[in-house]
Structure formats: structure tokens, C-alpha cells
Write a structure and sequence with these properties.
The chain is α/β, with parallel strands linked by helices and 303 residues long. The protein is built from 10 helices and 12 strands. Strands 3, 4, 5, 6, 7, 10, 11 and 12 form an 8-stranded mixed β-sheet that branches. The chain has a two-stranded antiparallel sheet with strand order 1-2.
Length: 303
Amino acid sequence: MDLRALRYFIEVVRQNGFTRAAETLHVTQPTISKMVKALEDELGGPLLLREGRGVQLTDAGQVVHDRGLEMLEQARLLRQQVAEVDDITRGELSVGIMPTAGHYMAPVIARFQHRFPGVNLQVNEQGARAHYQMIQEGQLDLALGLFDAPDPAVERYTVARQTTRVVLPAHRVTDPSLPMRWQDLRELPLVLYTSDFALHEHVLQQCAAAGFTPRVTLQTRYWDFIGHLVAADVGVAVMFEHVIAQYDPQRVASRPLVGPAITWDVALMWRPGYLSRAARAWLDCVREVYPPAEAHVFGKEKT
């Protein structure tokens, strides 16, 4: 069985469609369709049913998906363990980095590649929710995540701590220190991340807790596009401080968001248990660039 075809099939299921899977894997949609069809031919029947823009697993497809995840994880571990015979002189390391958090990992990447130039570093750029799921499924060795509460399902090392703020057009903000409450967003149009970003669900939950459903005008995966939309008065947004710092202060401004104010840990996460030498070396580089804080507030921390 072609493991690449299996990987393409699983990505189609995870992305709920061939187009998004092709974008994530950086291949053409016909290539993925051909590989999935070859897998179905080899196994003797359909694995997916197309439903509108999405897909649904057949009974056989569910079996292939579940067993396929196990097979890909075993293949990954085999490659890692063989590579470690050469003491990290070759092999692969897969790391998830959120599009808004690349600046945290750039110095880590530079340090790691300088020390271990033979390791094939694969960077996956998606939202924190998608990366969390990929860690659970064994598709990534490590990934940056966002945490506002303990989570025993992963181990993690905190890189930074961020607070969410409301982003508005600059001409609408006279006092950037004046806080807003979640209830204040009730009548305002909102620009939101797509659902694979942790902040998407967080905003919806906090609005629900404040007693209303937000009026979402547009959703996007791109933080810079959100900034342009806010500047154009399409809507306001709830964003992290490190993202807001990259916006043009002449066009957008922000105010504190309280009631409650939410602090998040930006943390490197991994599944408890086995870590390859390459993954441990990456964690060492992260620790060197971001030395342990005196105390961590949330969750199961590694120091």
C-alpha cells in the first residue's frame, strides 16, 4: 500500500474536502483525487462519498481512516528511530507553527538548522485547533498551541503569555487604555478567524457567556487581512497582543477586553511519552531561546 496515498486520503478527511487538502499538502487537487481513487481501487470499493463541498466516510473508509492513522504513525516512528542511529545526522522533524506566531519560532529554526543541517524540518502552518488535533493523531512531532486552562492530554513548554484585546479602526479610538467588555461587542460587526483557529471558538464562547450571538461579517485565516478589514471599517476583531503589534498604528488601534480578561499561554506542545532525538533537540533549542519562567500558571509544564 502506498503510504502517500493513505496520507492524502486522511488529509482529505481531516480537511473535509479535496481542495483544502490540496492546499495543505501543496499539491494539485487532481493529484489527490488520483491517489485516493488508486487507494479505493486497491481496497476494492469507495472510501469517501462527496456531499456538497464536503466528504463523508463510508463504513470501509472509516476503517481505513482509523487504521491508516496508526500505520502513518508507525511509519513516522520507524523513520525517526532509524535516523537516530546516526545521532540526528539525518531524519525528519514535523513542527506546527501558527501563521501569527512565526516570529516566536524563527530564531529557534535558525539555531536548530545550524546544529542539525541533515534533519529535514517540515513546518505546518495552520491554526492552533488544527495543530492540537494533529498532535493527538501523531501527524506532528511538536506544535505551538494556545492555552487558557490546564490540559492533561498534552505536555507543553510556555514560550510567551498573551492577552486578547479588541481591534478597531484608529479613528474610532480616542483612549486606547479604556477597556471594553464582551457585552460591548453585541451591536458591533465582527471579523473572525476561521474555525480551525483557537481564537474562533474562544470568541464565540465568551459572547455566548455574555448573553448574545455575535454578528460575524466575515471569517478568514489570515491575520493581516483581518487588520485590513478592521482598518476599512468592515468590523472589529478580537486578537492577541503580538498580532496587534504588527498592525499599522495609523490605521488600527486596540483597547483592553475585560469581563473577563483572558490571558493565554503560547506554548510548545507534544503528546506525552516518546520524543525522538530530533524533537528533544528542538525542545532544547526552544528552551535556550526562551528560558524557563520562574513560574507557569497553567497545565502540565516542562522546565
